Amino acid sequence: VAAAALAGRRGRERRAKAVRRHAAAAGTTASSGEDTRLGITQRRSTATALDFVTPPEIDFADTDEQADQDKSAHKQFEWMKAWYPVHVLDCMDPGRPHKTQLMGLNIVIWNDGPTVDGKKVLGEWKVFEDACPHRQAPLSEGRVEDDGSLLCSYHAWRFNGKGDLTDLPYSPEHLKEKHMCSCRAKCKVYPTRVEDGLLFVWPDTTPLGIVESAAKEPPLIEELHDPELSKKWIKFPVNLRDLELGWDVFFENAMDPSHFLVAHHNITGNRYTDPKWFAMKPWRPLDTDGGVAVRGIPGVFDFRPPCLVKNQQDGGVIFAIYNTPTTPGHCRHIGFLVLDTETLAGDSGVVDKKSVELFTGPVPVWLQHLLTSFFLHQDAVLLHHQEQNFRDRGFLAQKGTEKQFKEVSYTPNEVDIGSIQFRRWLRTRAGGGVPWQCDPMLPPRLMTNEKIFDVWNSHTKNCQCCKEAYGNINLLKNASYASAFGAALAMSDGPERVVAGAVLCGVGLALQKFGDLFRVYEFNHQDNK
Fold first, then answer.
1. SS3 label, residue 391
2. pTM summary value
3. DSSP state of 230
4. In terms of Cα–Cα distance, which of 170, 292, 428 is closest to 158?
5. Contact indicator for 92, 105 with CB cutoff of 8 Å
6. Torsions phi, psi of 275, nearest 5?
7. Cβ(298)–Cβ(260) under 8 Å?
8. Confidence label for 141 from pLDDT (cuts 50, 70 and 90)
9. Do 298 and 212 meet the contact criterion of CB atoms below 8 Å apart?
10. Is the pLDDT higher at 236 or at 41?
């Protein structure tokens, strides 16, 4: 949240500078005012200079007519031959299997390290198809045994990290080895890579696909891997969230800086005073494998297929916004912050040092994860229903959609160019959308927002840090109530007993309210005044 507030503040400062430049050219003077929000001093334009500045004429019509007439005009993105981040290493308990999905494929993540003297020794993270070859029971409901094997809980078949069957109960001894060596007894194993604390998966398990996976790099933040740059760029804790909205509407949103000031009112902007015209221009042309990038006052928004938007801002701040398509109408968001320590240590006048301290100080990882709900849910409630409205009007991000994005949206402003370019890439370079390996039907609209605001199923149950913190808070809550009851029994009548009981009950209630944030956080834009 503090990182987003920092971005909003810096964006407002640069827009104010742009206002003053345009005002000077028009013979007017722009004034500025200060606004204090979340303890951060922010500046915004209060003048009407922009009323006298005419934005440039921009034609947002899709000029790529050849792509409309001939889909072979461009090389098409190969969705199955790419790396996707599916989980955060620090969030996973290595002693358990973890269920997730990728483009409709059901997969299970587990660690093949042994348990020695009661302590798990980390081995390699493995990703299998979430189906036992015996009778297709889910391996995610199985167990990681002490020897580092994955056991199916249905009939106790065991598998090593290579997917080989290592134990076959109920089989006669004279046939056991023959049955275990059958190719039909082997699990489907997906290629994996660990980078920047993330587990990446390659969905193509064919022999050629496995070879190709070794030759292709996943989309990464290069500042963390360059031998020189990595000395000064540092990464801050990674957050993970499963969202009730599609992969495409998420990235359309991530390429749109103008929504920061409105949708995130009181965090990164003021919906009433901050929205003003600002320039956004293509920064890099559309490319099948390279994606597209745009640049403006809020920085560069660089979409790198199939799973990353890198938002790099002046002053040494990078927002790494990963997003993986899980199933139609759902996606898994993974995000983190990267900072240039040299720029932050300097006196550039661009980055607010006090703001940086808010999210680089000694804040527990679980608290950073918890606070993410305040920001993400502001978008999630809008994007779920936006996607459903698109569907109701005949547009879906898939091949053969009845209508196109430009037919169901009206985007006359230059600030929309990032979203427009992303949609254009998806239509002309990527077959129109994700080639789902499951039923491609978009789920029906949620009639209530309960699932959108469900923190437990979208994050807490998948994060060992937050599950542990939630358990500890519940222990403290119960201890507070027990202490209040004990004080009522042990202390003699008098004001001291009343005060002690009231204080301990108050602490318990406060912990109850705080603990509820691990399960649900509801947000309503009407109440955000």
1. helix
2. 0.86
3. G
4. 170
5. no
6. -60, 120
7. yes
8. very high
9. no
10. 236
405, 419 contact by CB (below 8 A): no
CA pseudo-torsion sign 261, 366, 507, 355 = negative
Q: Which pLDDT tens digit goes with each residue over 85-108?
A: 999 999 999 999 999 999 999 999
As to burial, measured by CB atoms within 10 angstroms (0-12 exposed, 13-18 middle, 19+ buried), residue 464 is middle
- Give every CB contact of residue 487 below 8 A, 6+ residues apart in sequence: 497, 500, 501, 504
For residue 219, count CB atoms less than 10 angstroms from its CB and return exposed for 0-12, middle for 13-18, buried for 19 or more: buried
8 A C-beta contact, residue 408 and residue 74: no
Cβ proximity of 281 and 240 under 8 Å: no
Instruction: Please give the structure tokens belonging to residue 275.
Output: 């929205």
Position 303 scores a pLDDT of 98
CA 91 to chain centre: 14
* Lookup result for tokens 């190709």: 212
CA 242 to chain centre: 8
| SS3 sequence of 447-484 | CCCCCCCEHHHHCHHHCHHHHHHHHHHHHHHHHHHHHH
One-letter amino acid for residue 118 of the chain: G
Q: What is the DSSP letter of 418?
A: H
Please, which residues bridge with residue 37 across strands? Answer: 40
Q: Of 297, 260, 267, which Cα lies nearest the Cα of 281?
A: 297
> Bridge partners of 45?
32
Q: What tokens were used for 388?
A: 């459903």
Distance, CA of 86 to CA of 299 (rounded, Å): 27
Amino acid letter at 331?
C
277 pLDDT band, cuts 50/70/90, is: confident
pLDDT value of residue 1:
47
Which 3 state secondary structure label does DSSP give 41? Answer: strand
**DSSP state for residue 439 in the 8-state scheme:** -
Does 147 have pLDDT greater than 50? yes
Q: How far apart are CA 53 and CA 23, in angstroms?
A: 8
ω into residue 306 within 30 of 0, thus cis? yes
Cα maximum dimension of the chain = 95
- Contact between residue 107 and residue 86 where contact means Cβ atoms under 8 Å apart: yes
Q: What is the rounded average pLDDT for all residues in the chain? A: 86
Q: Tens digits of per-residue pLDDT, 3-55?
A: 444 455 555 555 555 444 444 443 433 333 333 333 333 333 333 333 333 44
Of the candidate ranges 191-200, 209-218, 364-373, the one whose mean pLDDT is the lowest: 364-373
